[in-house]
Write a sequence for this structure.
């Protein structure tokens, strides 16, 4: 089934796919609109000069990482979890969960989802020097193969092979691990897409340089500081925060204007309602009590940042805002204080509004006056009219909240440690995506499934139309861990169980109608015996036969995705006189043995007579079609088929 891939892998040259496109695929070679030609030449040069120097990020394994990202296709297949996918909540779902190496999964996704992902959030291993990260890839290059592919010396090939096979946790190893994954993630993002990445201090600096190299320095959108801990257990500086770094694919297609909802508004309105009940329309008394009430909140509490909303009138809570004119001296006139009857002090630059507008605002009660005319009046800016604010760079969110939430869902503490915060993740997704569009959210370090949970929460609150793609390697849980004692074998099992339980809770609590399910697939590697059989199989020999067969679901899933139909298409079964074909888009897949001339005749008749049946590609599973006479007849008939009414030409594609 993947004979072509096996034959092609190892034959590509570094940067084959980059030569024709400049800024779209080479943002790292530009400063603004200026092309760094020397850097561009190095990028597209097949004969890499390791002695050249310049201001750029270099590390052991960089060109190796580029090579496996761009020139090596996946040799895995996508195996559907038939039991999961056939359940009522899942069989029509457009959400996706892939279990397997995320590099292999990303290579599968690029075939159908390139430029379709709106937002990508990842929480990669932090490389603390402990058990969090150790690089060890499964590419079995010989020293000679690596020398030929990268045009490097034997010593350099030795160093790379040693690093990639020795479970290294060096900076170079971490960067070599991250580079191809981020490279592919960028391909998957739509032009307005955004990626945000959680990271701690150990690789923060390296990640910034790596993302500058891949996404382009000019597409850096900023970073958040997330204070999520109160630990005090380090010798020098106690690190109580981590970072979330943001890049857009193209700032020309994503202008920012990212907004978040102000937190604490409900609590403030509730407090002022109590003040009003106590003091009636004594606005000054309400103001004084509000000032005292705000004092209880530390800077880390979101309510603290709204403490200037300390006044109230019939319309609600407000703060006295600046009313001075933007253009010096443009509007100057007398404003009379409503109590003293005297002319109020005027702003130095004059009033913001023309006199008629100001009189109407005073009449409508939209101007705040001081006790007497010596205080400059102010605009009233109401809390409920300013529920959004620019995305702020500092977040205070105790990490224990997320852990407690997951404990409640899974029924036991520490099944998964250090999960990400659902509310924070949901807020960042909402802030950085266009809610009017259908948005695919990708997380290829899915862990406990926080991102999927956040997507469901957004959908339940009617805050957008979101679908998710989760990818998680089938990493075993630690021996004798809480997770193992509760029957979990791998991390992805925990994540999928969390998604199912979160879906149930959200549905019961909100009753919202949206897609709660997900399709599940495994990205599985072939064993060496199967690979050897595929390589040795010769379709031109009558006696040639493949002993190991792939199941039909795996073949059609892998091929549909390869042909751009994605992982959740609608598949129609076509009955060709007793032989079943599978019709997706303009592709007809013929997978089973037993195709006869009678079936071919039926196929040709349906193409001519059925106006709704328009396959332009007929794809055969070559191992099941060893009768040369039938194959020749099918190929000849399709070549001769010309239907003037439909204007269709049908191609025959044989795959092994």
């Amino acid at each position: 089934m993947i004979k072509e891939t096996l034959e092609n892998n190892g034959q590509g040259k570094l940067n084959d796919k980059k030569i024709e496109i400049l800024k779209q695929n080479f943002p790292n070679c530009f400063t603004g609109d200026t092309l760094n030609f020397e850097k561009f030449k190095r990028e597209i040069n097949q004969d890499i000069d390791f002695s050249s120097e310049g201001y750029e990020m270099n590390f052991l394994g960089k060109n190796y990482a580029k090579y496996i990202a761009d020139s090596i296709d996946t040799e895995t297949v996508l195996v559907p979890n038939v039991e999961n996918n056939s359940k009522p909540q899942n069989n029509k779902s457009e959400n996706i969960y892939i279990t397997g190496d995320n590099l292999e999964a990303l290579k599968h996704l690029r075939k159908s989802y390139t430029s379709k992902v709106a937002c990508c959030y990842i929480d990669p291993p932090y490389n603390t020097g402990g058990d969090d990260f150790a690089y060890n890839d499964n590419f079995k290059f010989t020293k000679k193969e690596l020398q030929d592919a990268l045009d490097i010396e034997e010593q350099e090939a030795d160093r790379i092979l040693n690093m990639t096979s020795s479970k290294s946790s060096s900076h170079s190893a971490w960067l070599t691990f991250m580079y191809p994954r981020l490279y592919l993630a960028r391909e998957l993002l739509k032009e307005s897409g955004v990626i945000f990445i959680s990271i701690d201090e150990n690789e923060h600096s390296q990640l910034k340089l790596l993302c500058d190299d891949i996404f382009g320095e000019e597409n850096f959108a900023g970073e958040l500081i997330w204070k999520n801990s109160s630990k005090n257990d380090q010798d020098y500086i106690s690190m109580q925060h981590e970072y979330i770094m943001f890049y857009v694919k193209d700032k020309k297609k994503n202008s920012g204007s990212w907004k978040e909802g102000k937190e604490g508004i409900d609590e403030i309105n509730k407090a002022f309602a109590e003040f009003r009940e106590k003091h009636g329309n004594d606005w000054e008394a309400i103001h004084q009590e509000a000032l005292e009430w705000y004092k209880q909140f530390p800077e880390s509490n979101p309510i603290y940042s709204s403490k200037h909303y300390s006044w109230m009138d019939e319309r609600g809570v407000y703060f006295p805002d600046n009313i001075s004119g933007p253009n010096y001296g443009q509007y100057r006139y007398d404003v009379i204080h409503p109590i003293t009857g005297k002319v109020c002090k005027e702003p130095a630059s004059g009033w913001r509004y023309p006199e008629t507008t100001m009189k109407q605002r005073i009449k409508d009660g939209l101007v705040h006056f001081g006790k007497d005319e010596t205080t400059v009046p102010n605009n009233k800016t109401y809390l409920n009219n300013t529920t959004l604010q620019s995305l702020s760079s500092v977040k205070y969110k105790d990490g224990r909240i997320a852990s407690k939430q997951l404990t409640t869902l899974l029924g036991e503490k520490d099944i998964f440690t250090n999960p990400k915060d659902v509310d924070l993740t949901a807020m960042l997704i909402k802030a950085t995506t266009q809610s009017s569009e259908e948005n695919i959210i990708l997380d290829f370090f899915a862990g406990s499934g926080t991102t999927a949970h956040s997507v469901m929460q957004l959908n339940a609150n009617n805050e957008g139309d979101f679908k998710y793609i989760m990818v998680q390697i089938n990493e075993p849980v630690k021996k004798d861990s809480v997770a193992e004692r509760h029957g979990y074998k791998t991390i992805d099992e925990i994540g999928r169980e969390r998604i199912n339980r979160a879906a149930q809770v959200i549905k019961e609590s909100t009753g919202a109608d949206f897609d709660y399910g997900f399709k599940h697939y495994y990205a599985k590697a072939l064993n060496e015996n199967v690979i050897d059989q595929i390589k040795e199989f010769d379709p031109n020999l009558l006696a040639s036969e493949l002993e190991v067969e792939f199941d039909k679901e795996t073949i059609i899933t892998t091929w549909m995705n390869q042909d751009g139909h994605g992982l959740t298409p609608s598949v129609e079964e076509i009955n060709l006189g007793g032989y079943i074909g599978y019709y997706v888009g303009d592709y007809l897949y013929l997978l089973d043995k037993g195709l006869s001339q009678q079936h071919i005749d039926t196929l040709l008749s349906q193409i001519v007579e059925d106006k709704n049946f328009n396959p332009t590609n007929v794809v055969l599973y070559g191992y099941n079609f060893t009768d040369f006479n039938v194959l020749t007849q099918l190929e000849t008939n399709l070549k001769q088929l010309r239907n003037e009414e439909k204007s269709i030409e049908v191609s025959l594609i044989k795959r092994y």
About this structure: The two ends are 4 Å apart (CA to CA). The chain has a mean pLDDT of 87. The chain has 21 helices and 23 strands.
